[in-house]
Specification:
The structure is a single chain. This protein has 475 residues and is of the alpha/beta class. It folds into 2 domains: 255 residues, NAD(P)-binding Rossmann-like Domain (Rossmann fold), CATH 3.40.50.720; 199 residues, N-(1-d-carboxylethyl)-l-norvaline Dehydrogenase, domain 2, CATH 1.10.1040.10. The chain is 49% helix and 12% strand. The strands form 4 sheets. The protein has a 5-stranded parallel β-sheet, sandwiched between helices. Strands 4-3-11 form a 3-stranded mixed β-sheet, sandwiched between helices. Strands 10-12-13 form a 3-stranded mixed β-sheet, with helices on one face. Strand 3 and strand 4 form a beta hairpin. The radius of gyration is 22 Å and the shape is globular.
């Protein structure tokens, strides 16, 4: 009888000091930012060990604690997988269990960066306006209690402690897919801080740094098959491996408190003065088409992005979106050929080793659409360009959040507004579209009015013909 492989564990020995606290220690950061940090410490040294924080549940802590924070990163390339053990994460805290311990860690003078991957909904803001959502239950709690529950709340309360201790603030490094993510988070933190202590807000405004970033790596959900594959490649059992594509990119505004940061530029990160062109390129070209494929692909019966790309109609759709609707609305970043970038994205999407499921990308659409699709629509409207493909994608989102697929089977819609969106998805198509366009957290009034005819027609087409035929006829 074959013995079970030994558990992945950290070899005893000295560790670099903790220099980074990361809020939201999910798969993406462990497959992206943590690897950059590990590489930077290997290349240039420095005490940049990572303390991870789970803001919701203990699952990742329970998996990583017996492994000393170690985990396997499994690179899935068409020619076969490669495994690497990552050692940058040293400890994991669970915020609801001990918020005081999290604040103590963030207030430690040795911590110079607090980074975040909390997804769009973790910012407790209104995506359509970029303002702090003062009606959000977590924000209401954080205004009334010194021990917070939200990511903005932890940032504000930890900065409050550092100010009281006479320390410099930490750099707040957001790694989520939001346009202007650094300035956006700065505004949310300042708004919350000003409502707690105006002098604190002034101090953060003067001394704090919130560099903008653009992150890019496809990180599918880990499956039981991935766990078995990681074990076979390493000879060790890992309860929390991550999988990712070979490609990675991290563009960072080089604006850190006291200039203190890991030597990320030495390991491939792009340290720049202006992230915005890179960010818009990625949000609209990668994330925008990802979301379009997620809804249209799911409704059309495709489980993964690679499955969509193996379907000639869907591959033609993304080519059309890039060439006719998205690229014309972009200013290329310095030195970037947008057509070449689209060709590289096409290859990445089609990678059969990456099982990036459409339902995973479809999550939290009410938070994602404004950044990924609606910005392009607004630019095209202003320029007098049509956007039938993106209108069809929005119509597919509307069909998806109704909660049943084209065969009448229930859809597990995971979205902060799921119940409300489902309640609005009643009546004839025109009524449903109008009701969903009235959700101001997603659609500003002026944009909703402008796109209503096109989205209504696209929704009627989906209802009459189904997603795959609608996609096929468009291309």
């Amino acid at each position: 009888m074959r013995a079970d492989p030994p558990r992945l564990t950290r070899t005893p020995g000295p560790l670099p000091g903790i220099g980074i606290v990361h809020l939201g220690l999910g798969a993406f950061f462990r497959a992206h930012g943590a690897i950059y940090v590990a590489d930077a410490m290997a290349a240039s040294g420095g005490d940049w060990g990572i303390l991870g924080v789970s803001l919701r549940n203990p699952g990742i802590r329970d998996a990583l604690a017996p492994q000393g924070g170690m985990y396997t990163a499994l690179e899935l390339a068409p020619e076969g997988p490669k495994a690497r053990v990552i050692d940058a994460v040293q400890r994991v805290l669970v915020a609801p269990e001990d918020p005081q311990a999290v604040l103590d860690a963030m207030a430690d003078a040795a911590v110079r960066i607090v980074s975040l991957t909390v997804t769009e909904k973790g910012y407790c803001h209104e995506p359509a306006t970029g303002r702090l959502n003062l009606d959000h239950p977590d924000i209401r709690h954080d205004l009334a209690h010194p021990l917070p529950v939200s990511a903005p709340g932890y940032l504000v309360r930890a900065l409050q402690r550092r100010r009281a201790a006479g320390l410099l603030p930490f750099t707040v490094l957001t790694c989520d897919n939001l346009p202007g993510n650094g300035p956006l988070l700065r505004g949310l933190v300042l708004d919350l801080a000003r409502r707690i202590d105006p002098a604190l807000a002034d101090w953060i405004d003067t001394h704090g740094r919130f560099p903008a970033t653009m992150v890019d790596r496809i990180v599918p959900a880990t499956t039981p098959e991935d766990l078995a594959r990681a074990s076979a490649l390493t000879g060790q059992h890992d309860a929390a491996p991550v999988v990712h594509e070979p490609f990675r990119q991290w563009v960072i505004e080089d604006d850190f408190v006291g200039g203190q940061r890991p030597d990320l530029g030495a390991v491939g990160a792009q340290m720049v003065q202006d992230v915005a062109p890179f960010e818009l390129m990625k949000l609209r070209m990668l994330n925008g088409t990802h979301s379009s494929l997620a809804y249209l692909g799911y409704l059309g019966g495709h489980q993964t992005i690679a499955d969509c790309m193996a379907d000639p109609a869907y591959r033609a759709l993304v080519r059309r979106l890039w060439a006719q609707e998205i690229i014309p609305a972009l200013t290329p970043p310095p030195g970037i050929d947008l057509s070449a970038y689209a060709a590289a994205l096409e290859d990445r999407f089609a990678n059969p080793a990456i099982r990036h499921r459409t339902w995973q990308i479809a999550m939290d659409g009410s938070q994602k659409l404004p950044q990924r699709i609606l910005g392009t629509l607004e630019a095209n409207l202003a320029a007098g360009r049509s956007s039938p493909g993106l209108m069809l994608a929005i119509a597919a989102w509307m069909a998806y959040v109704g909660g049943t697929d084209e065969q009448g089977k229930p859809i597990d819609v995971r979205d902060p507004l799921a119940a409300r969106l489902r309640d609005l998805s009643n009546g004839p198509p025109e009524t449903r579209v109008a009701a969903l366009l009235s959700v101001r957290e997603v659609f500003p009034q002026s944009l909703a009015s402008a796109i209503a005819p096109g989205v209504t027609q696209a929704f009627l087409t989906l209802q009459a013909k189904g997603a795959r035929r609608a996609v096929s006829e468009m291309t």
